[in-house]
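I am sending you the entry underneath: sequence plus fold tokens. Let me know what the token row says about the fold:
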Amino acid sequence: MSTTESRLARTFELLRRHLEREREEPVATWSSPEALKQRIPLELPVDGVDDETLFERLDAIVAATPRTTTRRFYNQLFSGRDDFGSVGEILAVFLNSSMYTFKAAGPQALIERELITHMGRRIGYAQAEGTLVPGGSMANLMAMLLARNKARPESRNQGVDGPRLVFYASTCCHYSVPKAAGILGIGRDQLHRVGADVRGRMIPEKLRDAIQQDLAAGHQPFLVMATAGTTVRGAFDPLEPIADLCDEFGLWLHVDGAMGGSAAMSEQWRSLLAGSERSHSFAWDAHKLLGMPLSCSVVLVRDGGTLLSSLGEEASYLFQNDSEYDLGEMSLQCGRRNDALKLWAAWQHHGDSGFGARIDRLFALARYASSIVESDPDMKLHCPVESITVCFEVKGHRSDLICEALRRRGEAVVGYSILGDRRVIRLAVVNGMLDEGDIDQFFASLRAARSDQTQGENKTDPVPC
């Protein structure tokens, strides 16, 4: 056995122990940062250590890491593990392809193109172009860049000048939206936040008012960033009337479907995305509801040639004879890891129908969880369940303290947020392995953690959404 094969064998033994811990141990063994630094040697050495020492340290790190792939992790909009997604990820690491050229990536470039085309068709783009990106924040940044260059074609070479560029998103938009404006030099203050209804959806009439006010002030509106699946409420902006306004005023429409884009796989729920085919660009995170290993995100663009016109550069040492499949000319990155193989492998296994069934199951489980809340007189549901998040509070107990108690007990990891002026527990149902028994167990653990807490008030300073 070669040295590499021996180390691989040790690695898979480490992973086997990790799977055992997932089944038998708490979802998170609580330790402070100071305690972890004392327990695990994290300092980088002057001289390297031997294999035995290194694997001992790796095992300690794995054991101390929160187990996000278990059925008790509800804290983020990712959870669980897809077997073939993991297989594809492992193979991608060993193949170590960079996705900038066909010469370097071979069939991996064809796989990415197939994913872009197929995912585009699911949201209504006849022949999409796009690229895989390291997260939905990057997808939103790229979309804003494309929209800016469409509104100001000279800005790519000369910088942004002229009337003030302004754009719009709901009060419930993701924080990556103002961040992108700051990065691109548009300015965070040029984001005009449009009011949302009680369900967290952008109100088109308020969007029209904001656009008209900016035009009257001599500004140049250029972009609307709609949200398909808000982070807390899971709400979907009404895309059809928003698209009507974008057509009327000549604005780029981007849909941040990082969370909710996967509804396109469900025959039951894809109507939530009605109008997505009229957008100019669309962000979709497959590491959220489709369960891919982090990260696996895509930005889709409706019209061919858009990415190349905004991102293409001359690099004769790199882009040579296979321009049709040289994906690097349509990316912000040069060297880029292969995030396509894991999604392709999982899609081969599940097919469209399997992914659709997964989305239907997750939406149904979220509604099952909300029914438990509504039937318990000691709990209060704060908004209707739109997709896969359930926002509620335990009456008379602070939501943040209950979440912390669950984490310290190692029984569940779940987060809290603020809706209006109330702290609420946000249960995110994204793990495809979950069933109703897991939801029942979560609420049993919640009630036990509640008994540890003294009375407390959830009223706090209000936030816009």
The chain has a mean pLDDT of 93. The longest helix spans residues 340-375. Residues 197 and 203 are 6 Å apart (CA to CA). The radius of gyration is 23 Å.
